[in-house]
Amino acid sequence: MSAVLAVAIGLLTGILSGFGIGGGSLLLLYLTLFEGAGQYQAGGINLLYFLSCAPAALISHRKNGLIEREAVKCCVPAGVVTSVLSALLAARVDTDLLRRAFGVVLLYIGVKETFLRKK
């Protein structure tokens, strides 16, 4: 992959992540489908990517008053616990099963957002 294309993909998915569109998921799909990265390698890259994009999005959302403090109080601890448990589980699950499960989740979210979203 050329460096210019890598920067362009990273920039585009970073902008989409900032808007809450799921740029990290798009990056994961790009790495696995077009760059041939393994599921664990792509997941690790995606985590590093998230750590670099999240602070900017958090600052912007806080500035615009989009953060509900009460939700943060319960979601952060729950997110930490489930992240650790999920990482331990993922280390024991076959990569093909993880890839298929991720695809099913993306399809479900896509269908739900397309057809079942309240206006």
Note poorly predicted spans: none
- String of helices and strands: HHHHH
Q: Using DSSP, what is the number of strands?
A: 0
Mind telling me the C-alpha Rg?
A: 16 Å
Structural commentary:
InterPro entries: TM_pro_TauE-like (IPR002781), TSUP/Inactive_protease-like (IPR051598). Its main location: membrane. This protein is mostly helical. The protein folds into 2 domains: 1-66, no CATH class; 68-119. The protein has helices spanning 3-18, 23-33, 39-63, 69-90, 95-115. Helix content is 80%, strand content 0%. It is built from 5 helices and no strands.
Core attributes:
single chain, 119 residues, mainly alpha, 2 domains, 80% helix, Probable membrane transporter protein, membrane, TSUP/Inactive_protease-like
List the topology elements.
Elements: H1 3-18, H2 23-33, H3 39-63, H4 69-90, H5 95-115
Helix pairs in contact: 1-2, 1-3, 2-3
Task: Please give a quick description of this structure.
The protein has two domains: 1-66, no CATH class; 68-119. Helix content is 80%, strand content 0%. It has helices spanning 3-18, 23-33, 39-63, 69-90, 95-115.
